[in-house]
Fold:
Amino acid sequence: MSALGTSSRVARAGVAGAGSPGSDVLGVVLLDAEHYVETVDWEDPTAWVAPAGLGPGFLSHPAYWSLPVVYAVARGATSEAAAERRPEAVRGVVEAVRRLDGRCRMIVGTCGHFADAWGELDPRPGTPTILSALDVLEDALRWSRRDVLVLTMTTASGRRSIADTPQPTRVRVLGMDGAGDWSRIDRPDWVTRRDWSEDGLEAGLREVLDRESGAGGALEEVGCVLLVCTVLPQFTAVVREYTDAPVVHVGSLVETVLSAS
Structure:
């Protein structure tokens, strides 16, 4: 697996994918969870209505994006399987990308661990594709001589995700590790059994950032912050309260590419 340095791949795919038949929609790859459905072959593939438990701040919600959204489910890629880098999760992401390729303006992943699929995506998709904030980790390490901070659901899964990084000593991993309401969304039924709140997630994030913002903490003098967990982008403003470093996530990367095309 190598999800690193994929910004050049995105640029090349952008040229190949320009003017595709589905250029008016965004293709979104979803985790395999009970509340998600695949719409790519629907008569109106943009007609999915998000369940009440899924707020518009989540990348899997159609209201998050500036374009109408078409969905493909990565079969076998449950949150647990993706975090553990299981083969069935990687295969599910690859197959979902293939089903979307050529049918949308851009393809985006909604789990930070989807970056593992790049090692199996050969040939590369013709449609511009960003699977994870980890796609630009190698680039972020070049932007500055300072370390890069990876914010993710759990420290353990984050460390697995960066295991193949060329400069692992320059990557700091900080997980939410169940702070606040974070443990309540790390399960398959987190949308249908909503016993958490965005306020509870923000409180947990602040707890983690407060702990790591002092001298010797993970936030000290970082050159870039990557929001790898895709629940985190809705709290970008909170993260920016704790650091002056650039804060990058899948949503910001996608909107940058879309605005340039």
